[in-house]
Write a structure and sequence with these properties.
The complex is a heterodimer. By secondary structure, chain A is α+β, with helices and mostly antiparallel strands. Chain A has 9 helices and 17 strands. Classes of the chains: A alpha+beta, B alpha/beta. The structure holds flavin mononucleotide (FMN), iron/sulfur cluster (4 copies) and FE2/S2 (inorganic) cluster.
Chain lengths: ~350, ~625
Amino acid sequence: MATVKVNINGMDVQAEEGMTIYEVAQSLGIYIPTLCYHPDLSTFGGCRVCMVEANGEEVTACRAPIKDGMVIKTDTENVSQMRLINVELILTNHDQDCQSCARNNNCKLQEVSAFVGVTPERMQRLRRVITNEVKDISNPIFQRDFAKCIVCGICVRTCEEINGIAAIDFGFRGYKTTISTLGDKPILESKCESCGECVERCPTGALVVKGQVIPEREVKTVCAYCGVGCGLILGVRGSRVVSVRGDRENPVNNGHLCIKGRYGFDFLNHPERLKTPLVRKGGVLTEASWEEALSLVAAKIKEYRDNFGPDALAALASARCTNEDNYLLQKLFRSLGTNNIDHCARL
Amino acid sequence: MHEAFVSLRAEAIRKWEERQQSTIPRILVGSATCGCATGALDVITAIEQKLQETGIKAHIQQVGCIGMCYAEVLVDIIKPGRPRISYKNMTPETVAELLEDYLLNDNPRPDLALAVIGEGEVEGIPNLADEPVFKSQQRIVLKNCGHIDPESIEDYMAQDGYMGLVKALQMQPQEIVDIVTKSELRGRGGAGFPAGRKWNSCLRAAGDQKYVICNADEGDPGAFMDRSVQEGDPHALIEGMTIAGYAIGASKGYIYVRAEYPLAVVRLKKAIEQAKEKNLLGENILGSGFSFDLEIFQGAGAFVCGESTALVMSIEGKRGMPRPLPRPRTTEAGLWNKPTLLNNVKTFAYVPQIIHKGADWFTSTGTEGCRGTAVFALTGKIKRSGLIEVPMGIELGKIIHEIGGGVLNDRKFKAVQTGGPSGGCLPESKLNLPVDFDTLVEAGSMMGSGGMVVLDETTCMVDVARYFLQFTLEESCGQCVPCRLGTLQMLEILNEICAGKGREGDIELLVELGKSIIASSICGLGKSAPNPVLSTINYFRDEYEAHIKDRACPALVCKDLIKYSIDVEKCSGCGLCRKNCPTEAITGGKKEPHVIDQVKCTKCGICYDVCPDRFRAVACFTGKEKAAV
Ligand SMILES: Cc1cc2nc3c(=O)[nH]c(=O)nc-3n(C[C@H](O)[C@H](O)[C@H](O)COP(=O)(O)O)c2cc1C
Ligand code: SF4
Ligand code: SF4
Ligand code: SF4
Ligand code: SF4
Ligand code: FES
């Protein structure tokens, strides 16, 4: 790709042709507020808070591509005024109770409001108008709170572009515009697969996990549900796993997860969860050490192979093991002399 | 000229002439949607009945709208050897009377007549061409409306119809585009974009498949000029689009009509069929090798779908949301990402005549920069409301006072609102402005699609701004913050001002919000939505101030700011107000002064209207006076 020269806030810089103004600014560490932009998704251009001046005209940085010789200013009076007013307008229509909001301290709207300089004096001049107070709690995992929705469309694009489901879209017109399902049904009655990708990307408290607990520390691991091996970051409080998020740095899943990997972690904290192998003693399953259990298995394998030949053995592997584990299992059994190998996820 | 066409045209002219020479009387009834709404169909039934009763032979014909809404239902009678006389405000009763008097007894009833149309004289009846309502008008795009039978392609052909197409088919596409460019035709959809530039860009765009789209969405409240063309002269639109198709190399066209225009759809469908029958549309038009098909697409009535990119999405079956910049040009990547030429109904309807008569003919009307005519739907507090076509550059005041006949009930003129919800209000001091795209924008309003609403002293300007804002607010597509929430915020503020809860600083706040919404919205809807508010603040700031500072509505409109009261000195106790008050808020004995219970009063003003002139005991107060009574 060709490089082009642009001037941004007085600095001459080179950038790749085809980049947007936002991308160039970001690569230089220049902050431009955004609400409807998300790096994983196509651009939308609806929030109008990323306005900058390019060659004397106000444009949205998230969509406008750079051009050779372009002069960009990110901090003109006009631009700041427009950004501020647009954020103020969003706040007039926002149920702002940050203290009890699940997105508190992790909220794009908070971040952008602080940056553009929202003040109580200016906000007082405006009238508050909450246009949609509906709360959709139909989904057992997450809730939709429309009084906090800023109609940025990130969820809509996520569902279509990341998950390929398109369970949700814009509905209605004018100030009544909202995110809706087919026939405006509760989300549980829609095509939604509860993958949570939209919840993950929602910039506000409009889409949040029910009963969310903020972890004290995080642990990187691999999902144990299937052989794909998505990278997970578990959130832990004490010795409890309280949250899961996708590991964006993991090349296997780039941060994406399915419903099971993201939300199916309750069993980890379950009192009846198996934590040691069980060995049947006198007809009763009894907790045993790994040493004891493995020795028993090894002895039994040897006994059966010696008495009945290697084809008396068979291995059935689990889809919940990783690829590597599965590979090793078949290797082991072939070296024991049998090809009787199967896997529960085989179709 | 093409042989088959020559004989088609000759046949059409022969039939037209034959009809002019008809030995039986002809009766033309204006029965576009406007005529039908005022009872044209009942009038037709009455005519049929009368003819049957009396045994008079006459030919009844339905025609489109001639534009004089104030005079609907219009019935024109052409007796053999007599000029065409147009009769106004016909009802089933008056029309029966008229038929008897004129057709049986040869009394042309000047008292019922509006005017003579065309040549000839009838004593006591003026000629339409000399009438103030018509004198300054010039009909190009509406020339056939109200004159021909819109359901007859032969009527259209007898008026030089399809001559433009035949001529075009013998030219190179570039030649046609050059004529359109040279005519300086500007798009009539509101923005006035030069049509030639659009056509040229589309001709040059690479692509084996191109499309022509006619924007017939016409969503502005009060605008109906595009409907009139479609209902009154559908072939002009079809011919214009076909020429466009040939010029840019498109084989398919769409007419995007709003579903609220059922009659337009019916007439267009009929016209398309007729044109196909005569091989003026469809496969291999007149043996030229050029094929062009037209399809009607009915929009679901969203104002924003009139915006070109939203319209394209709507045809593609998506939610109509204008595409934000930067985006590819519609002429290069429009419908299904193919090069697309999108123009307004009137823009296309001018084209056949421009091709037929030449670019110079078109530029001879109008002004430098704005050629041709402008069509307006003149309504509001005006004596003669209707559809008018005037040369570009005509003085605004002339439209209102001469063509429109001045303000209704001889009240005082206050403002004229042009351009519908995207436009603004201009005061008396601007009435000397020439009407064209650019001057109106400079003055803070716009031509828009052609709505023109006259407001008088009984109109509250804050309330008017609120009315238009309410419309755009509900019609916004909702995708961008300034438009979706900014207009809502402005409306909330206006609502409070009208309710007497306005705050110091609200005017400045409205201006600040308005400017920001204009600057940061995605499409023309948001970019123009604040205009009605900004222009009324600009020209009528004192009214806003009165509402906020004095809690007064000078026009006595805002209900929360006014109070009706009965003057005990003047009240004769006739009881008329008491009998008419819908909420029984008025009490008082016979011949005793009456009193209004302010709690029950809904400020409908009926008492004010019914109190006899000789007493004038009911008065309306606002502001300080209101507090005093
Ligand atoms: C909100 C909005 C509504 C519009 N509605 C119409 C309409 O009803 N009819 C129309 O011809 N143009 C309408 N336009 C203008 C179109 O976007 C477009 O400019 C026009 O149809 C182009 O045709 P022209 O070049 O012949 O004027 C509208 C624009 C906006 C922003
Ligand atoms: S979404 Fe953000 S701004 Fe809104 S209440 Fe929650 S934390 Fe606060
Ligand atoms: S949870 Fe997944 S499937 Fe459901 S709406 Fe969100 S992105 Fe779409
Ligand atoms: S739910 Fe969240 S992601 Fe979706 S539009 Fe609302 S704020 Fe944006
Ligand atoms: S300005 Fe209004 S109508 Fe236009 S894109 Fe924005 S929200 Fe939609
Ligand atoms: S981030 Fe650019 S318009 Fe929303």
